[in-house]
Amino acid sequence: xxxxxxxxxxxxxxxxxxxxxxxxxxxxxxxxxxxxxxxxxxxxxxxxxxxxxxxxxxxxxxxxxxxxxxxxxxxxxxxxxxxxxxxxxxxxxxxxxxxxxxxxxxxxxxxxxxxxxxxxxxxxxxxxxxxxxxxxxxxxxxxxxxxxxxxxxxxxxxxxxxxxxxxxxxxxxxxxxxxxxxxxxxxxxxxxxxxxxxxxxxxxxxxxxxxxxxxxxxxxxxxxxxxxxxxxxxxxxxxxxxx
Length: 243
Ligand SMILES: NC(=O)c1ccc[n+]([C@@H]2O[C@H](COP(=O)([O-])OP(=O)(O)OC[C@H]3O[C@@H](n4cnc5c(N)ncnc54)[C@H](OP(=O)(O)O)[C@@H]3O)[C@@H](O)[C@H]2O)c1
Description:
The structure is a single chain. By secondary structure, the protein is of the alpha/beta class. The protein contains nine helices and nine strands. A seven-stranded parallel beta sheet has the order 3-2-1-4-5-6-9, sandwiched between helices. Strand 1, helix 1 and strand 2 (27-32) form a beta-alpha-beta unit. The radius of gyration is 18 Å and the shape is globular. It holds the Pfam family adh_short.
């Protein structure tokens, strides 16, 4: 059976992806910081789908431990999903370096640190799928979340370069831009229904995109149109908007 490694596996989106892949009979390595939570998820998935699930401790910002972490997976995974992320608070991050750093370190540096190692191994093996959960927030910076958005922009660009590099090795890289999703991350936000989806729909879209070898997906198609319009607005107009 193929194995999928899910990084940030306690995230609501990650849990839906884990169930989707388990239903397709993938064995799973679920990696996260909260071991009690991840062990509960492990038991639930094992019972429901009868696949092997290995829980592992993983902190995206403990860069120096990433090489050892990968060695300890024992089985090198065919699929790797980067699902961890930290939205943080924009206003706080403008004035407080620790908050700004945490946003950049989690969403960008942590992802680059672990995927650099994953990419080397997949390139050697000439197979593998890397899935990165990025964000439409990275498509254009706006005042309400440009520190998180700039980290996601960096991540999107990194994934694009990785896809280009690994193409000739037969390794596929999928960039996912979910739009608004009803998860712990957004529970205090008033999300517009038309632009909002569920973790289960994100997982289903990823499953289809893997099959079709898609490069980048917007989970709700309307986001593709919204972001084209937003990207086309001249800066002289965009800078005056309250976004
Ligand atoms: N929800 C949305 O609307 C939305 C939209 C676009 C993109 N995304 C992206 O989708 C991904 C999943 O988010 P979600 O919506 O499912 O939110 P979530 O449930 O809040 O999940 C975020 C996850 O990231 C983990 N995490 C944070 N810092 C970490 C670190 N240093 N090391 C390891 N894990 C860490 C958290 O683990 P702990 O429990 O240990 O804190 C948590 O499991 C994120 O990358 C997010 O940016 C979400």
